[in-house]
Design goal:
By secondary structure, this protein is an alpha+beta fold. It starts with 5 loop residues before the first strand and ends with a helix. The longest helix has 31 residues. It has a five-stranded antiparallel beta sheet. It has three domains: 70 residues, no CATH class; 68 residues, no CATH class; 100 residues, no CATH class. Helix 3 runs antiparallel to helix 4.
């Protein structure tokens, strides 16, 4: 079985956790074979319930994978040999290995490539040869985004932005964001220490100061709040990954009155990107900790 596919028992021993890089057609066949399977944000994988789920999933994968992958990878290698992707961001091993500066565009494009997967130990994306055609189609966007995010290119954009007419407005908005305060109605205060969704994204309220929000500040930075006259400042923090995973999503989108109030229970569609962002942030922090530890050990 390929190394990027994993089957194991869930933590409770009542089902199977099945992990494989995204491929729409393969995922559809998997869902057809296991109609009770559900995606788990906790495991970032599919969970198949049942005491025999591990054995059933393993048998199905053993039946599905070998003939499909072997021929597809061989065809992909032939295709790559005939029309290689030449780029400083791509190297060839037993798979196609991609390393670029961080870019949301790159991440989005590679997530859409079937069987592509991020390997944190290598700090690189790995794409099997069976997916070379889709990677080739997306490569112009990937390479362009990588070049845009090279340090020198980012510095040039930053210098150019300083001369833009709205530069000071952008700086002012950034300063307001760093204050970690948010206007809430005094007549409808949000619950503390709970993950909420707001016009500023997911947040956790840690205190309500009671200080009245100046009208000019509301007009400049919180246009959605202009219809309210009873706003006070609340202090907030970002929710942790564990808090986002444990938050129960709302069944319905926020109502007009909740949007006017400024906070509401997040939906699953709002929680998923927030969880992905928090997971990426945790990985980045762990990488920095490992780097600092290795530097300390070699000094």
């Amino acid at each position: 079985m390929p190394s990027d596919i994993e089957i194991r028992e869930d933590d409770a021993g009542r089902g199977a956790i099945v992990s494989f890089p995204f491929d729409a057609a393969f995922a559809e066949r998997f869902r057809s074979a296991f109609p009770r399977a559900r995606w788990s944000d906790q495991y970032q994988a599919w969970r198949v319930p049942g005491a025999t789920a591990v054995r059933r999933a393993a048998l199905w994968l053993d039946r599905e994978l070998p003939s499909t992958f072997g021929r597809a990878d061989e065809r992909g290698r032939d295709s790559f040999s005939f029309e290689p992707i030449v780029s400083p961001y791509l190297t060839v091993t037993d798979e196609l290995v991609i390393r670029t500066p961080y870019s949301r565009t790159v991440v989005g494009e590679l997530r859409a490539v079937p069987w592509a997967g991020w390997k944190s130990q290598d700090k690189a994306w790995r794409v099997p040869f069976r997916s070379v055609d889709e990677l080739r189609n997306r490569w112009p966007a990937i390479e362009a985004a990588a070049k845009r995010n090279e340090p020198e290119a980012r510095r040039q954009r930053h210098d150019a932005a300083k001369s833009a007419p709205d530069y000071m407005d952008t700086r002012t908005a950034a300063r307001e964001r760093r204050r970690r305060r948010y206007p809430v109605p005094a007549s409808a205060l949000p619950p503390p220490d709970k993950v909420l969704m707001s016009h500023a994204g997911p947040l956790v309220i840690i205190a309500v100061t009671g200080e009245v929000v100046p009208g000019v500040t509301a007009e400049q930075h919180y246009a959605w709040s202009l219809a309210r006259q009873d706003l006070v400042w609340a202090l907030w923090r970002r929710p942790t990954l564990d808090e986002l995973v444990e938050t129960w999503p709302a069944r319905h989108p926020p109502t007009a009155s909740e949007l006017l109030r400024g906070w509401w229970q997040p939906t699953l569609g709002e929680l998923r990107p927030a969880r992905r962002a928090a997971r990426s942030l945790e990985r980045a922090r762990e990488t920095r900790r490992e780097h600092a530890s290795s530097q300390g050990g070699t000094s």
